[in-house]
Amino acid sequence: MHKPIIIINFKTYPSSTGINAVRLAKICEKVAFETGEDIRVAVAAPDIHPISWVVSIPVYAEHVDPYPPGRHTGSVLPETVKAAGAAGTLLNHSEHRLGNKELEESIRRASKLSLVTVVCADTPSRAEEIANMKPDFIAVEPPELIGGDISVSKAEPEIITRSVELVKHKHNISLLVGAGIKSREDVVKALELGADGVLIASGIDKAEDPEQALRDLLP
Hints:
The chain is about 45% helix and about 15% strand. The longest helix is centred in the first third of the chain and has 17 residues, at about 20-35. It has a single domain, classed as Alpha-Beta Barrel (TIM Barrel). It has helices at about 20-35, 45-55, 80-85, 100-110, 125-130, 150-155, 155-170, 185-190, 200-205, 210-215, and strands at about 5-10, 40-45, 60, 90, 115-120, 135-140, 175-180, 195-200. The chain has an 8-stranded parallel barrel with strand order 1-2-3-4-5-6-7-8, surrounded by 7 helices. By secondary structure, the chain is α/β, with parallel strands linked by helices.
């Protein structure tokens, strides 16, 4: 079994923003160093700089907008997150979806700045559509399972196998899966079905002991 990529999406929980985001990122780095696992974090834009300043694991933005520098008040630009220390970005999460035109431009602009692009899709067919935009990773997450207690690995394993066929085999793009991932069993099953890693949030962000929760997740 290959070593998985684990991306922890901090979202905007009180336990994973501001000073708590820095604390959680340090925990993730500690576990990554002690286990040798590939652990990355995706954080809110204001937290990118303070986190990237104190950890050496990859720090991603949770989102960037497709606009160039200029009159775009309130937007999060790829140039801004890059300057703050981000190595990549999530895009098109189910909580922040983009239309095709905006998504394709966001991927193009981020890639031009050498930011790793991890683009979310809610179904295998949507994942294949996004694959034509050539992101670095596609993360398939059925929205009805996000934040729940049953993982995509257990509830709908066919989503993973179909996505593997359409994304990895057809387009040679690395595939992550998410939604309800909370245990080592969930991760191992996803890898056995062909995924390259997982995208996880509340299972770590809201855990009473995030370090132990993360260690328990690793295969």
